[in-house]
Amino acid sequence: MTVRGRFWIVVWSAYVLLVLAGVVARQTAAWVTAGDLNALREEHRLLDVTRNDLIRRIRQARSRAVLVSRAERLGLSLPPDSQVVELGLPDPVAR
């Protein structure tokens, strides 16, 4: 039995279809991954906004105006500047 031209056309057609199916599968996976990446970027952006808002609120709560008003409401006296001692944190790199 000899192999004729029709056989090779069927073999090459099947090969081309398999390659095209692989390309389509890879592109579909890329679209799914791109969608996941976009969702993660959006979540990261929202977390950055939340973090910045929290940092702003902390700075505002630590401000002298807020602390003085809270101390006055609690009946505490404000110390003179000579009694204020600032404590620093050790430098973690200097170890």
What report would you give on this structure?
The chain is rod-shaped and about 110 Å long. The chain is an all-alpha fold and 95 residues long. It has two helices and no strands. It has one domain (5-74).
| Separation, N- and C-terminal Cα atoms | 83 Å
Low-pLDDT stretches:
none
Overall geometry comes to: rod-shaped
| Helix vs. strand class | mainly alpha
Total domain units: 1
Topology, number of strands:
0
- Rg over CA atoms: 34 Å
Compute the average pLDDT: 91
Describe the main β-sheet briefly: none
The helix tally amounts to: 2
**Considering DSSP H and I runs of 4 or more, what fraction of the residues is helical?**
over 70%
Strand percentage lies at under 5%
Order of helices and strands: HH
Describe the structure in brief.
The chain has helices at 5-61, 64-73. It is mainly α and 95 residues long.
Task: Tag the structure with descriptive keywords.
single chain; 95 residues; mainly alpha; 2 helices; 0% strand
Summarize the helices and strands and which ones pair or pack.
Elements: H1 5-61, H2 64-73
